[in-house]
Design brief:
The complex is a heterodimer of chains A (296) and B (441).
Chain A lengths: L1 H24 L6 H9 L13 H9 L12 H12 L10 E5 L20 H5 L17 H5 L5 E3 L5 E3 L9 H5 L5 E5 L4 E3 L7 H7 L9 H5 L5 E5 L4 E5 L9 H5 L5 E3 L14 H4 L14
Antiparallel strand pairs in A: 1-4, 2-3, 5-8, 6-7
Chain B lengths: L24 E2 L5 E5 L9 E2 L6 E2 L4 E4 L8 E2 L4 E11 L3 E10 L20 H10 L12 H4 L10 E5 L9 H8 L1 H15 L4 E6 L3 H10 L6 E6 L8 H9 L14 E5 H13 L5 E7 L7 E6 L4 H7 L7 E6 L6 E3 L12 E6 L16 H5 L6 H9 L3 H6 L10 H5 L6 H19 L1
The chains are: A alpha+beta (296), B alpha/beta (441).
Chain lengths: 296, 441
């Protein structure tokens, strides 16, 4: 009994000393700035910066390998904080961008070809006659953008279309990449005029399938005092496009548009503190994201 | 009787009794035919005619570029009145050549039988089949001539003719084996000549014993051709499953049947080959089954390519009531079309109309991990695991689990007690993996 106690105590002592020495000798030096930056990051691990996650981005910033501006979710305020930690001059920062849906074809506006009964996924619905809506250019309304948004900034509205909350949207670009119809676009928050239709077909055809389609009447083009909006040709057909370098947000085009395809977005107050959603808000299946067995 | 089969699979209700006893009749030739420019796997055709031009029956009106392509032919004589975009039973919108029938049925001068079909060389046969626009009639519409092209270092030793017809409701191949067994055997002999092999198998399931008897009678004098009877099971008509059931050979992952020296063709394709080689008539008509509980008089029809579904349905006495869905092909692997104004294409093996059901669609429950889908999967996959990857967009992991080996037979979704639409999620994963592959290149 006594031998066992003594030998254990001696072994414990020896291992303790060895571990203590090893801990000092092989200690990994962590730059305290990395820890500090990680605590500042949005923590959504969205990947918009091109790194594996927020921690990897923080390390790359400290190592001087990544541009601190690349964190779109953090935006200008994070950039300033990073500059303070890194001891550099913040300088100027580009305008914040948010996602905007270029379609208004809700349940009431857009004609349907058939009733879709399958799994709610835009890509799958698109494989059946380009989606259940008669319009082949618009939003499929199956909510892939809503599910992919890491910030809970997209909700599916009562008319079936996704609604982007400009205060929560960080411009991470995930929904834009996910959308198979390329119907979402990142637009600077100061640009308020949006042509909310991408239908390239002739005016009558477009109007027959959606009451709020761009009918290529060119009223916007004729009435714009700045020559900033044009009905431009695309791969086939044409659609109205706003040139943001010229647009002054006067709103004449939106007032003239007979189908209300051109809309004025409400100016957002940059001073309002953004409430950042968590990934759990948006994801239908919360989880650690690795093995997926527990999520069933 | 010694019958063999493959691993996995399911036993859906066949409903074949609706039409298997009905003789194939010729459908009324429509006043207008709509011939899509894409009726095969591969690059779509370019139209060779313009609006207002006169065309004769059997004239080539569209031609494809590239090796994997197949020309299309006018199925009636008349005038081209439009080239317009229409719904295609494959779930897309495709430009179609619209021909107004002049009811003269004048044949084009290119349609004439060769002097001696027996003396044709394999290369000549291949070119006749290519120019005849022959594609696989089972539904995948793979251009047939491509299969026989000799590949350096590999050789076929067996040709299997697929007379399995495992899809519920469809009886077109069954009727063909009863009505024209000699055409099928003649086609098989041309295929064996092109594939340069001397063993032919005609595979038929044991629910069609009358077809077995008919084919056995037709091959009684042929020492190289045998009829193999297989156990009734879905999806036995799938190429790889059929090869395993008939020969016990397994096609490697991502490989072609050529890797095990086997060539598979549909019995319908074989009889089309015999027709085009001996009479010169290209692929302008096919047999199909119109069935389902939503059809007043289910039947088998010989139909011109380009006939609208709606005309055939009204010829069958119309609908029995409110319609839930119209399926092009069989109910397991077919595609639902949203209107009956779609034309019959080379791959349309049937039209199945389902009556509106009063019961709401069953809700989806969580996976109970019963592994029924794994038992049913004929491709040795784990559908439940693949679906979990797909639900979380883990495409790389799905690819590593060989999601691309899925043949989309739908057996997993059929057996799932939780009503999970597994096949749709797997299809989504395949879509995403293909897109990622295309991006990498």
């Amino acid at each position: 009994m006594l031998v066992a106690v003594i030998s254990l105590a001696v072994m414990g002592g020896i291992f303790g000393i060895v571990l203590g020495i090893a801990g000092k000798k092989f200690a990994v030096e962590v730059d305290p700035r990395v820890e500090e930056l990680i605590s500042l990051m949005p923590g959504a691990n969205c990947g918009a910066c091109g790194k594996a996650g927020c921690a990897a981005f923080a390390e790359a910033v400290v190592a001087g390998e990544a541009n601190p501006k690349l964190c779109t979710p953090g935006g200008a305020s994070l950039y300033e904080k990073i500059a303070a930690v890194m001891g550099t001059d913040a300088g100027s920062y580009e305008e914040r961008k948010t996602a905007r849906l270029l379609c208004q074809g809700g349940f009431e506006q857009a004609k349907m070809l058939y009733e879709y009964q399958g799994v709610h996924d835009c890509h799958l619905a698109l494989a059946n006659f380009k989606g259940p809506k008669a319009c082949n250019f618009g939003c499929i309304r199956m909510g892939n953008c809503f599910r992919v948004c890491p910030f809970g900034a997209i909700e599916m509205g009562a008319d079936g279309l996704p609604v982007v909350d400009p205060y929560k949207c960080t411009g991470c670009n995930k929904c834009v990449v996910e959308c198979p119809q390329q119907i979402l676009e990142l637009v600077g928050v100061s640009h308020l005029v949006t042509v909310r239709c991408l239908n390239l077909e002739k005016g009558k055809t477009a109007r027959d399938i959606c009451t709020t389609a761009c009918i290529k009447c060119k009223l916007c083009e004729k009435n714009c005092p700045e020559d900033a909006v044009h009905v431009e040709p695309r791969s086939f057909g044409s659609v109205a496009v706003v040139d943001y370098s010229l647009c002054t947000n006067c709103g004449i085009c939106a007032a003239k548009c007979p189908t209300k395809a051109i809309q004025i977005t409400e100016q957002i107050d940059e001073n309002v503190v953004r409430e950042m959603g968590t990934p759990e808000d948006a994801s239908p299946e919360p989880g650690c994201g690795s093995c997926s067995v527990c999520a069933g | 009787m010694n019958t063999s089969t493959f691993k996995g699979g399911i036993h859906p209700e066949g409903h074949k009794e609706l039409t298997c006893g009905i003789k194939t009749s010729t459908a009324r030739v429509p006043d207008k035919v709509y011939i899509p420019l894409s009726q095969h796997i591969g690059a779509p055709c370019v139209p060779l005619v313009t609006v207002g031009e006169k065309v004769a029956k059997g004239e080539k009106i569209g031609d494809g570029k590239g090796f994997v392509s197949s020309p299309i032919h006018a199925s009636v004589s008349g005038t081209v009145v439009a080239i317009e975009v229409m719904e295609h039973p494959g779930g897309t919108f495709v430009p179609c050549i619209v021909i107004e029938n002049d009811r003269l049925e004048t044949w084009h001068e290119s349609v004439r039988p060769p002097a001696d079909p027996e003396a044709l060389s394999p290369a000549e046969l291949r070119s006749i089949i290519f120019n005849g626009g022959i594609v696989g009639k089972g539904g995948a519409t793979f251009p047939t001539h491509v299969k026989y092209n000799p590949v350096e270092g590999s050789k076929f030793d067996t040709v299997i003719l697929n007379g399995v017809e495992c899809e519920p409701y469809l009886t077109g191949d069954h009727r063909r084996m009863l009505e024209k067994p000699d055409r099928i055997v003649a086609g098989l002999k041309y295929i064996m000549k092109m594939a340069d092999c001397n063993r032919g198998i005609i595979a038929i399931e044991d629910n069609k014993m009358d077809a077995v008897a008919s084919m056995e009678k037709a091959v009684a004098d042929e020492s190289a051709i045998h009829v193999v009877v297989l156990k009734e099971k879905y999806p036995q008509g799938a190429e790889k499953q059929l090869i395993y059931a008939c020969t016990g050979r397994e096609v490697p992952i991502g490989g072609l049947p050529l890797a095990v020296g086997v060539l598979v063709n549909n019995v319908g394709t074989a009889s089309s080959i015999a027709d085009v080689v001996e009479t010169g008539v290209p692929f302008i008509e096919r047999s199909l089954t119109i069935s389902g509980d939503g059809i007043a008089q289910p039947c088998n029809y010989q139909v011109r390519i380009g006939t609208l579904f709606s005309e055939l349905i009204s010829e069958c006495g119309g609908y029995t009531g409110a319609v839930e869905r119209i399926i092009s092909g069989g109910p397991m692997m077919g595609k639902t079309v949203f209107s009956a104004a779609v034309p019959v294409v080379k791959g349309t093996s049937g039209i199945v109309v389902m009556k509106k059901s009063t019961a709401p669609p069953p809700p989806e429950f969580a996976c109970v991990r019963c592994a029924k889908c794994i038992d049913a999967c004929p491709a040795y996959l784990e559908p439940t695991s693949l679906v979990k990857r797909a639900k979380r967009s883990l495409w790389h992991e799905a690819e590593a689990e060989n999601v691309m080996s899925c043949i989309e037979c739908g057996s997993c979704a059929y057996v799932c007690p939780s009503q999970i639409p597994l096949i749709q999620f797997i299809r989504r994963a395949k879509q995403a993996v293909l897109a990622a592959k295309a991006k990498r290149q």
